[in-house]
Amino acid sequence: MPDVAQATQNQREALPARAGTLARKRDFLDLGALSAGELDGLLRLAARLKAELKSGLEHPYLRGRTLAMIFQKPSLRTRITFETGMAQLGGHAIYLAPQDIGIGERESAKDVARNLSRWVDLIMIRTFAHATCIELAREAAVPVINGLTDLLHPCQLLADLLTLRERFGALHDLKVAFVGDGFNLANSWIEAAAIARFELRLACPAGYEPGKEFRNRLRDLRGGLLTHDPIAAVRDADVVYTDTWTSMGQEREAARRRRDFKEFQVNRVLMKHARPEAIVMHCLPAHRGEEITDEVIDGPQSVVLDQAENRLHAQKAVMVWLLRPEILAHQGPVASDNL
Ligand code: CP
Ligand code: NVA
Questions:
Q1: For ligand 1, what atom is nearest to the CA of residue 155?
Q2: Based on the number of CB atoms within 10 Å of its own CB, is 192 exposed (0-12), middle (13-18) or buried (19 or more)?
Q3: Residue 318 and residue 26: Cα distance in Å, rounded?
Q4: Ligand showing the shortest atom-to-Cα distance for residue 312
Q5: Omega within 30 of 0 (cis) for the link into 333
Q6: What is the atom index within ligand 2 of the atom nearest the CA of 181?
Q7: Which residues pair with 68 in a beta bridge?
């Protein structure tokens, strides 16, 4: 009989390499850091994990691993899908609420990162300043995932691209219209269009355009358009996407924003300008009667619940890629042309 120390050693050897031993730590902070091949690989892995789950197959790729989830803003989808996803992968997730650790107030991001790296294998953060997310990733020895900042929401976009692949197959021939605020979701759509090479039209009120860097990136895209006319953006589009007019942290501006965005509602009249088979997307939570009507979000063109479901599968793929990169590599040659 092996002694306890020997048994523990055997168990350790049976586990795949831990994050600290990865040759090169990767993070998932923005889609722009991915190659087209990596994006295609993540989408293929997400589709496989989804199919396996639906046919009752287990895939405990992250057995014994722990994810720390730092939330400085509220969440339904991000919290539930990371926690459920980690459980389905055989791991464990710890929820840290805004009042729990006070990152940058009770303790610096650097100290939080260095402490967490001694205990957990992976960190997810939802915060305000993107710089906090970058600092956390720089100081952490384990991979960090951006679960939304004021700048970007890459997890949402990965789920959205998975939803588009399910609906349309290849992405590069699509015409996507984003109608709303030039904030985190719009920026992430610009990053996605740059990799997947679809046409992106962005309609927002004057004064709500994305920052200069993202405006320049949009201008350089094939078919990239920035307009103040929602009809021009939606004309012949395959996809019409919207998001809240008042994002988390902007609540005090809500009344002014409701006035400024009035002409940017996604409703039946606006949808008449899109292709008849166009789909409607929203990252949720929705403010029904503001950026989108009940009739449209509950109508036959809406795929919002597919998007929400796909958060689970897309983020499982991200976590597996960060902690078990060999699983993505074993999927076969990268296929950037698939996008
Ligand atoms: N779309 C999204 O991130 O939802 P939550 O804010 O509920 O996580
Ligand atoms: N733009 C929204 C997205 C919510 C998922 C916000 O930042 O609140």
A1: 3
A2: buried
A3: 11
A4: 1
A5: no
A6: 1
A7: 94, 123
Q: Is residue 70 part of a domain?
A: yes
Let me know whether 163 and 300 are in one domain. yes
pTM for this prediction: 0.93
Question: What is the Cα–Cα distance from 175 to 190, expressed in whole angstroms?
Answer: 13
Domain match, 148 and 167 both: no
User: Has 243 been annotated as catalytic?
Assistant: yes
In a domain, 339, yes or no: no
Whether 272 is in a domain gets the answer yes
Domain that holds residue 186: 154-306
| CATH number for position 267 | 3.40.50.1370
160 is an active site residue: no
Per-residue pLDDT in tens (0 to 9) along the chain, 339 residues = 344 344 333 343 344 444 444 567 999 999 999 999 999 999 999 999 999 999 999 999 999 999 999 999 999 999 999 999 999 999 999 999 999 999 999 999 999 999 999 999 999 999 999 999 999 999 999 999 999 999 999 999 999 999 999 999 999 999 999 999 999 999 999 999 999 999 999 999 999 999 999 999 999 999 999 999 999 999 999 999 999 999 999 999 999 999 999 999 999 999 999 999 999 999 999 999 999 999 999 999 999 999 999 999 999 999 999 999 999 888 866 655 667
Ligand 1 within 6 A of CB of 188 = no
* Domain match, 136 and 193 both: no
Flag whether 233 is in a domain. Answer: yes
Contact 132, 109 (CB under 8 A): yes
Q: Is 311 part of the annotated catalytic residue set?
A: yes
- Count structural domains, the chain: 2
